[in-house]
Structure formats: structure tokens, C-alpha cells
Please model this.
Amino acid sequence: MPTLTIDGREVSVPEGATVLEAVRAAGIDIPHLCKDDDQAPIGACRTCLVLVEGQRGLPASCYLPAADGMRVSTHGDALDRVRATVLDLTLAMLDPGGRGASLLATEAARFGASGPFAPAPNAAFDDSTPAFTLNHADCILCQRCVEGCQDVQHIGAIAVLGGGEAARIGTFLDRPLLQSICTSCGTCVSVCPTGALYPRVAGSLAT
Ligand code: SF4
Ligand code: FES
Model:
């Protein structure tokens, strides 16, 4: 059972745990936008950065195995600055007036993110299914929904399509969700951290 020091607090975690799990076990709150509690790490958002004594750079704690004797800091001048920049860049992906920005902005501000946000490049949405809507303007491409669809439900209805500014969540051949193999199980909706995927209630959009 590795014992680590996180911000001066000693914490022991089970073998195989990650540094992010150790940080959270120590009762310390850092952002981890693409890491869902029930899924393997994806390493897409880089919001969970930490400083580890003796290691170069700022590793993503969700991907870093916890090792005995590790000394980890979750705050510090350079680390706080880099994390705030990562959060600002993440917020810049979102529609400034949208659901994702309102869900993330307050939380991100706690960690020094400032905005203002640029207009989101993807304004389209998919409301073809009666169960939920996918609003690309509120999506940060964290890929939690893709992992949930693939690794939890073993369906694989959605993936990241395209690259660069055009990258977005979509289906095989870029068809509407209703014409895909999506079963409307709702896993993607339950793991989305920004509300880009949100349920529709009694035939109308939930707000
Ligand atoms: S739709 Fe939600 S869960 Fe999927 S990539 Fe976008 S923000 Fe992440
Ligand atoms: S939570 Fe670690 S990279 Fe996203």
C-alpha cells in the first residue's frame, strides 16, 4: 500500500491507485474534467496537473501511478498558472452564453481561470433522438462520453470525428444519432461534465 505526501499530508492508497486518487483521498480538490470515477483515465483535458518532487514537468495525475514515498504538490506559482491557462483554453472551446460555460466557469474560476471566452467554433447540435440532445457548442472534447459508450456499454456509437478546430463528437459516417447504433442508454449523458449531452424531458428540451 503506497504512502504519499500530498501538500504535506500523508495518505495511503491501494496498490494500483493513481496520484489523482491519492489527491482526492487526502481531501484535496483539483479539477479532473475528463476523468469519470467509474472509467479508466483518458488523459484528454490536462486539468489534473500536479507537481511531483524529483520529476520534470507537470504530469497529469489521473494517469500517474501512485508510488511509495512520492511527494506531490497540487498548488504552486507555476502549477497554478499553467492549470489556470489550461482551464481558460478549455473554457474558450465553449459557447460563452451556453450551458457548458455556465457549468464550468464558476468552478474554473476557483482555480484562477479568468476568461473571457472566444466564440465556440461548433454551433450545431443533434436533437434527432427523443432521449437527449448533443450540443457541440457546450462540448470540451473530454471524451468521457466516448469511453462510456465504448468501454462501459460496449456499444461504440460515438467517437471524435475530424481534427483541429473541426473536431467534434459524432457517429459513424457522421449520421444523426437517431440513425446510428446508439441505444439511448443515457451513459454518455450521465458522464458529460459540461451538459453538452443533456436529457430531453416529455418531448421537450430539459433546461
Ligand atoms: S459531449 Fe460531454 S462527455 Fe462528450 S466529449 Fe463533449 S464534454 Fe465530454
Ligand atoms: S482528468 Fe487528467 S487529463 Fe483529464
In short: Residues 139-145, 169, 191-192, 194, 196-197 surround iron/sulfur cluster (ligand 1) (CB under 6 Å). The longest helix spans residues 77-91.
